[in-house]
Automatic annotation (TrEMBL):
Gene3D superfamilies reported for this sequence: 3.40.50.880
Listed name of the protein: Uncharacterized protein
Matches recorded under InterPro entries: Class_I_gatase-like
Originating species: Friedmanniomyces simplex
Length: 59
């Protein structure tokens, strides 16, 4: 399932603490579900900025 959602993406990078949290939530969303990632973000009191930029393309 994750392979399909990640579209073959094998490396996930982020710079900085907040974008690292966003990247981790993206991974939770891909491996489990977006609802789970939303719940984790809510419990962390973190406003999740969804969306990933790969080579200048938002996916």
């Amino acid at each position: 399932r994750a392979n399909l959602r990640l579209g073959g993406l094998r490396v996930l990078t982020a710079s900085g603490v907040t974008s690292g949290i966003d990247g981790a939530l993206y991974l939770v969303g891909a491996l489990v579900s977006d609802d789970c990632a939303d719940e984790v973000a809510r419990k962390m009191c973190h406003q999740w900025k969804k969306g990933v930029v790969v080579d200048g393309t938002d996916v």
